[in-house]
Amino acid sequence: MEKFLNLSSIQRNLLVGSIMGDGEITKIYPNSRRKNHSYREHYGVEQENYRMWKASFFPDLFYLTKKSQTMRSKSSPLFTELFPYFYNNYSKQIPLKLLKYCTSPYFLTALYLDDGSLSISKRINHRNKKIYLTPHIYLYLQNYTQKELEVLQQHILNTFHIEFKLSKRRDGHGYVLKGTSTDLTYNFLNLLSPITLTCESMYYKSNWEWRLKQEENKFLEQYPNYQIIASSPNRFKNYTAEEVRKMIFLKKSGVKDIEIAKTLCRSYWSVVYKLRELRSGRLL
């Protein structure tokens, strides 16, 4: 474990989440000249910026080959060291012995941005001309067994206080992890927000306020006279004059956005957008 432990905490968490997600450690076949394994991660052109963002945390390890749309590494003792933790008879498995190192939100960030989804269910009340939108978090990890997912589920609960449920699915091993409440959705996105704020290309997954605006625009084209209502509306209620005054004071005092959000009992993204609004109005 020497090579793995020599990585920074952020790198360890991102790497484990990435290998569990879209990444893979390449195999060494009989008679191969290679002595060590390497890493590769295929992506679609629309996710190139995300892979550039991820690779920036590993400047001496990962690089992109844009022609093949792959983020990859050279052969490295690091991946030879990690291979048996992630593969059993060449089948991918959750590295249960490495989860004790996965205590940073960077782990969940890689796992979610790779294999997660911000799914939105809708309910339309035509009589009252209202559209209700409810966000849900999914981690599509059906390539792992139910038993493995149960261990991961408990690890996420114990470490991050986020309680996912196993949800049945027809493909893979038959189960994914699903958030069952809007509170979980907002808590999960808020937990990741200081990290995902720096990766704009993935806002459709990580930034609820941004995503909500996209959904509003889409529905209002079809239903121009309808009101769009997001679940748990108290999280998006208008700011009071006292909240605005306190926000301006805290920001001018050098308090970080995440701490302002905690002080006001608001979501991180709500505070980010409100501060942007205050700046554009030259109030800050």
UniProtKB/TrEMBL annotation:
<keyword id="KW-0255">Endonuclease</keyword>
<keyword id="KW-0378">Hydrolase</keyword>
<feature type="domain" description="Homing endonuclease LAGLIDADG">
    <location>
        <begin position="13"/>
        <end position="181"/>
    </location>
</feature>
<protein>
    <submittedName>
        <fullName>LAGLIDADG DNA endonuclease family protein</fullName>
    </submittedName>
</protein>
<dbReference type="Pfam" id="PF03161">
    <property type="entry name" value="LAGLIDADG_2"/>
</dbReference>
<dbReference type="GO" id="GO:0004519">
    <property type="term" value="F:endonuclease activity"/>
</dbReference>
<dbReference type="InterPro" id="IPR027434">
    <property type="entry name" value="Homing_endonucl"/>
</dbReference>
<keyword id="KW-0540">Nuclease</keyword>
<dbReference type="InterPro" id="IPR004860">
    <property type="entry name" value="LAGLIDADG_dom"/>
</dbReference>
